[in-house]
Amino acid sequence: MTTSLFNSDSSYVVITRKHLSRIVLPYEVILNSLCYRINDSTVFNASTALSLVSGGNFADDLVLLEIAYTSVKRAYPLSGLVSVWFATQDAKELFIDRGYENYDVEHLNCEVVSAGQIGVSPEALSIDKPESSVSKFDLVKQDGILALAYEQILSEPNSITSMKAELLSVQTLDGLLDYLLDSKELSPLEHEVQRVFAQLCIENSLDSGWDTYSILSSLNEQLSTSVTSYHQYEVWSQKAHALVSGAGALDIPLNDNGSHVLRAIILVLLNPEQEGLLAIKSQLGENIGDGVFNIARSFVLLRSGYSLLDFHQRERLGVNRTFIQDLNAALYNEDFSAFSQTSDSEVIEESVVEEASYQQRDETVIEVIESKFALSSVDFVTETEEGLEGFNAYSINGLVPNAGFVAILLEEQKTSQLYYWLIDRRGGDGKYKGKLGIDLLQIQSNLPSDYRFEVDENGVFLRLSADIHGADKLKQALVQIKDYLSIVKAVNARKSSF
């Protein structure tokens, strides 16, 4: 008789499989409001879990989540998820086979409750469904703040220490939002405008829609008279209203020589989604200041949130993803006390990351000095004559591009610089336009900073990092590029074996 199917050191919650795929995984948090009440509690122990699955009440549409030991809270961090238990093998396979753009389910420990493993007489249980449904509109603020934290950690991995200190200092979501929006250097006018507009971005998330004129009017209504009567704001407001009503042209400069916040709001009013924002940045280039653009991007991130990031983007966090998941639960619990002490494991993780960073730089230097590897000796590419003058060309074995695209690796003969040739325009093909151009800009923003898309009369090329000096690094880079290009339908992922 087996009664040790579940771990007595863990806690357990029950949710629907639908909520697992639609809420828990994209938002990376387990909300208590999603959980069934078993014997009047949403959190229960291994003994109750065993009675639940052996009593015939564990249906295919439910999952049992084994999490780190906890008391009842508003939210539980995904970092504490130990196992996902399914009622049947069919339920497990159906969940895994679907595939999810924003979470790699291969990282989950998925188990099946087997009737043969259970040999106990279940206790009588009361089972109640969640009292109310969860709306995505209720998750926007935490989701947006998490997106800002994600961006800051990507650009400054060591900022986690200062972020923890700020969490303990401010103790509120709005205080953390001010910190992530970098409000300390703003004038009182800019600070108030930024705070009010940030809240409007949250209230008018991607799912809520965007009425430009209404939002601008709401901004004026919610600001204090000390701001709206300020001459700088009055001039800006008049021009902004004329612009959004179609009565005026865009004659407000967008460079950094002025109020970054007010100029960023103009950008967002006209381009409230990331695709549009990236497109106008590409179009206007240096005419949009970096400071203005960064604030505008933060506003847009508040609207879209962390939940829309695909799993490749999330995996860029590395070991810091644990902190993001812990922070996420803390935002819903509005309790940051968990960050009051840095555990030994966190210290080790951070030191390992730093050491790995130094080691990687050292290895790069050594590789540059020692050799330039020969592409002709790499077993996953084959030399081809479909190239350009001055380049060696190689097809990538097993990689199948969709119609209108190519997948050729180019090596510049003089410098050995590598390029991924994506579109051949020598025949006058004008495929590189519209949404595709915006999609490629989005892909570029997710790749390392030294990757760049370039366009000329021959086609569209992705310039690869100059630090690729070995077959393993090249394959890693090409797999990452393939994954991103499959999202925009440039590569046929189903037919590709690379």
Summarize the structure.
The protein is an alpha+beta fold and 498 residues long.
Average the pLDDT over all residues and give the rounded result: 85
Q: Whole-Å distance between the termini?
A: 47 Å
Globular, elongated, flat, extended or rod-shaped: what is the shape? flat
* Helix content bin: 40-55%
Say what oligomer this is: single chain
Major sheet summary line: 6 strands, antiparallel
What structural category arises from helix and sheet content?
alpha+beta
Low-confidence spans = 343-371
What spatial order of strands do you see in the largest sheet?
9-10-11-12-14-13
Strand content: 5-15%
Q: How many whole angstroms does the radius of gyration measure?
A: 26 Å
Please give the count of helices: 18
Q: How many DSSP-defined strands?
A: 14
What tags apply to this protein structure?
alpha+beta, six-stranded antiparallel beta sheet, 18 helices, flat
Explain this structure:
This protein is α+β, with helices and mostly antiparallel strands and 498 residues long. The chain is 45% helix and 13% strand. It has 18 helices and 14 strands. The protein has helices at residues 17-27, 46-54, 89-98, 140-155, 159-170, 173-180, 188-203, 212-222, 225-228, 231-244, 260-270, 274-284, 290-304, 311-315, 321-333, 344-370, 435-446, 471-487, and strands at 10-16, 29-31, 37-38, 62-68, 75-77, 81-86, 110-112, 127-128, 381-384, 391-396, 408-412, 418-424, 452-456, 459-463. A 6-stranded antiparallel beta sheet has the order 9-10-11-12-14-13, with helices on one face. Strands 1-4-6-7 form a 4-stranded mixed beta sheet. The chain is flat, with a radius of gyration of 26 Å. Residues 343-371 have low confidence and may be disordered.
